[in-house]
Design goal:
Mean pLDDT: 91
Distance between the termini: 59 Å
Shape: globular
Helix content: 25-40%
Oligomer: single chain
Strand content: 15-25%
Low-confidence stretches: none
């Protein structure tokens, strides 16, 4: 008898549901006001990427397939996106901004500025803004200008005659990205103890008519276009991937239009003209009640001052150094010869990772350093250290993923700099993204008999080598000198660089080779044990769960009687709690101060100590991670460290009663509580006390 069938949830709707949970943070009274505004900007940034990548792909597949069912699904996703954005602006206008005004922080519109403020804004416009604006009046000799992705622009309908006597009623004003979108007014123009800001869009709007001497502005609107921004490079048809991507970056800002944003007051004739220009249907129009780009309100957050007695931001938090396991000043190589080290970021500092690499760079006995580079940032102390290592004559191999979306340019620049000092740079495998996080150090040492030998040390991570995001994302790093794991890590680098077959890893699970198969096999083993009535359990913590084969295996395990608990931060297309289908499966999502990024996998298929397994991983449970990426999972075999992972990365999240949401069978989420324990706060307190000891 076949297992009951489950209808999977829509992935795009699941992504929008995640952003709805993020937006809910902006309504929480226990979140500081500027942080609530920040959550609104995060949702805007997430939605930009959603339209640039996910919605663009769905639109393309729907148009090419021409299937009515696909089209109705597309319309449903677009409708959900409209509803979410309307809710976002309602919270911005009716909740967060009025609350900030009560605290003395206000964005002042032109109509509400007093004469002194208007004079200051006028001077700012004349001195800082007008010289950079060149309006384009449309006529046969002046076609509609190229409008870059996500740039701020104005459209205006003009009265009167153009200077050369021709008909020219429509003009476009492109706003340069170099101009600040939020401007703080001088304290002398504000009431005592108050802070006032103006938006660049409001400044231009107030002086728009001055850009067209002798003419009147009859109607106008801000507008913004979101474009398909996925770089489409045929890797099988290029001889130099780096150069092909570099070329693609120059045209990314002008891809196919996907979404048009205008202000709600935009006249119909203007938004219809824009829709025609960008070849968009009316469903792609978003008439918003406020600025067309809320992401830029992050500049207000950066400029605003905290008020005495009113914390408007989260209290600063610095992860602690693991002094009990790694004394400051001790050699990493000495410590790792004794035991493995686990680091739980951001509760524990990322500094030990930097210092591990720094020691390797300056140690004359270190001969080679190999590292994968995915999202390291435009500025990176780790990349600077790799450059220094190459200058010192060490063998440096960098596997740079050039196709890390929206980090392509930074990674290309790092690749070129590394090559310029003699490092060996490779770009992974054609058709696969290198998403695994590995840092391997090879050192010459003396054994007990005084003979020279080479010993390897490795750092593995669930997250990126980026010190900035390591303060914002939860991740686990793992340092070890275990000969089996380090030999497997060396084999992975050998395979990526040489493209030859190497000995299959004995300890590490890699995608696209064995990771998917091993996970499926382990889930089936759990299901079989559950059928036999043995103790069984599955706990998975990841960012997304959309792979159909893994979902089917989870359902089989649950239907066999195993308890399955999934902590999925973002999109999850498995419908939990469906009677007879997924009764034993619970899905929860935790959205708090830090972005949950840790991937942990736990299986139990019996009562014995050898009938459980725990892995840390770089991979989410998505088909792309299992089939189209170089990914990594590694077992945590040390009993103390395994218990640490369970106690810190799983148990608190399974019992979170503050930041957790429970997924319903239809894909909606319900907040469990708001007054219970918070996993993130508990970990901050735990490691904060440890730092103080």
């Amino acid at each position: 008898m076949s297992a009951p069938h489950a209808t999977l949830l829509n992935r795009e709707q699941a992504i929008l549901e995640f952003n709805r949970r993020v937006l809910a943070q902006a309504q929480r009274g226990d979140v500081p006001l500027l942080e609530r505004l920040r959550y609104i900007t995060i949702v805007s940034s997430n939605l930009d990427e959603f339209f640039e990548v996910r919605f663009a792909d769905v639109l393309e597949s729907t148009l090419s397939a021409g299937v009515d069912a696909n089209y109705s699904e597309l319309v449903a996703v677009a409708s959900a996106a409209h509803a979410l954005i309307d809710e976002q602006y309602a919270i911005f206008n009716d909740v967060v901004m009025p609350a900030l005004k009560l605290q003395g922080i206000e964005v002042v519109n032109h109509a509400d500025r007093n004469p002194a403020q208007r004079d200051w804004v006028a001077r700012f416009f004349e001195q800082q803004v007008r010289p950079l604006l060149i309006p384009v009046g449309l006529d046969p000799a002046h076609p509609f200008p190229q409008v870059a992705n996500k740039s701020l622009n104005f459209i205006a309908r003009l009265g009167g005659r153009a200077a050369f006597g021709r008909e020219s009623s429509i003009a476009i004003v492109k706003v340069p990205r170099v101009l600040p979108r939020v401007i703080r007014l001088p304290a002398s123009l504000c009431p005592p103890g108050q802070q006032r800001f103006v938006l660049l869009s409001s400044v231009i709007r107030a002086h728009l008519e001055s850009l067209f001497p002798g003419r009147t502005v009859e109607s106008f609107s801000q507008f913004r276009v979101t474009r398909d921004s996925d770089l489409d490079v045929d890797e099988d048809d290029v001889t130099n991937l780096r150069q092909a991507l570099r070329t693609g970056l120059t045209t990314r800002h002008f891809g196919r239009a996907i979404r048009l944003e205008v202000v709600r007051s935009c006249p119909e004739d203007l938004w219809r003209l824009l829709l025609d220009q960008f070849q968009l249907p009316e469903a792609a129009l978003y008439r918003v009640n406020g600025p067309v780009n809320l992401v830029r309100l992050g500049q207000l957050i950066d400029q605003a001052d905290d008020l005495p007695g009113h914390a408007l931001r989260f209290a600063p938090y610095e992860g602690s150094w693991p002094s009990g396991r790694l004394g400051r000043g001790r050699s990493f190589f000495e410590v790792l010869a004794e035991r493995d080290i686990m680091l739980h970021h951001p509760f524990e500092s990322f500094d030990p990772v930097v210092e591990f690499l720094r020691e390797a760079v300056h140690d004359p006995d270190v001969l080679a350093i190999r590292q994968t580079i995915y999202r390291t940032g435009a500025q990176s102390v780790l990349m600077d250290l790799l450059l220094e290592a190459a200058r010192r004559g060490k063998e440096v191999t960098a596997v740079v993923e050039l196709k890390a979306r929206f980090d392509e340019e930074a990674n290309i620049n790092w690749a070129e700099r590394l090559e310029s000092v003699g490092a060996q740079v490779v770009y992974g495998i054609v058709g696969l993204k290198t998403h695994a996080k590995l840092l391997l150090v090879t050192r010459r040492e003396l054994n007990s008999k005084g003979h020279a030998r080479l010993r390897r040390y490795v750092h593995l991570s669930t997250g990126n080598y980026n010190p900035r995001t390591a303060k914002l994302y939860t991740d686990v790093g793992y340092l070890t000198a275990d000969p089996g794991i380090t030999a497997d890590a060396d084999g992975i680098f050998q395979q990526i660089a040489s493209l030859t077959r190497v000995r299959p890893p004995k300890h590490l699970l890699t995608a696209p080779f064995v990771l998917h198969k091993r996970l499926l096999r382990q889930l089936d083993e759990v299901a079989q044990a559950a059928h036999r009535g043995q103790p069984t359990r599955v706990v998975v913590k990841c960012n997304a769960l959309t792979d159909e084969a893994l979902i089917a295996a989870l359902l089989r395990a649950g239907q066999a009687g195993a308890k399955v608990e999934l902590i999925v931060r973002g999109a999850c297309t498995l419908p939990p709690g469906v009677p007879g289908v997924s009764d034993n499966i619970r899905v929860r999502s935790v959205v708090g101060r830090f972005l949950e990024h840790t991937r942990v996998i736990y299986f139990r298929w019996g009562a014995g100590e050898d009938e459980e397994a725990l892995y840390l991983s770089s991979a989410d449970w998505m088909s792309r991670n299992m089939e189209r990426r170089i990914e990594l999972a590694w077992p945590v075999s040390d009993p103390k460290l395994r218990q640490r992972v369970i106690d810190e990365c799983l148990v608190p999240y399974l019992h979170d009663g503050c930041d957790a949401w429970t997924q319903q069978p239809d894909g909606r989420y319900v907040r469990e509580r708001s007054d219970g324990p918070s996993a993130q706060r508990a970990l901050m307190l735990r490691f904060g006390r440890a730092a103080a000891d």
